[in-house]
Input
Amino acid sequence: MEKEGQILQGVAIPPEAVAKSNALKAKRGKTLASLPVFRDAASLLLEVILIVKGGPKSLRGFYDEIIGNTTEIMKTIGMADASIWSPEDRVWYLNNAISLAEVEKTYFTALRKAGLLPKDADNKLMSLVKRIIAQLVGWRAKTRGEGAIPSVMTKNPEDANDGTQSAS
Output
């Protein structure tokens, strides 16, 4: 039986419409905003702005530093995404973004300890930063070609190290 199109919730979509849609999607290209780690960084920026909005004016310089650091994370993610021909450059940008994210965690801890950031807001920010770091670490590992096939996922434990794993 030849497939003539797609059926979505009882509505038949003609193959021409499916082909046209796929062609448009292929033409459009991916944007930086389509990266989950970039979207999380943008969410972090929003959360930081909401915290700063209610913060004391005496800490304006410190808050500016936090916002600047957050936007620098976003820029660095963008540079890592743009470094498609140089894995070394991409790894450098990813390491930079990871370092900046670790600094963010320190900023949030300082604000919480100073009594300027409620525990629930700190937990939310820390969770978001940890998620960003985890994504960046995974992206860096993929760029470096690191990782091994877990032996639990293979039938034969000897297949887990097939020689493709880098020596670290």
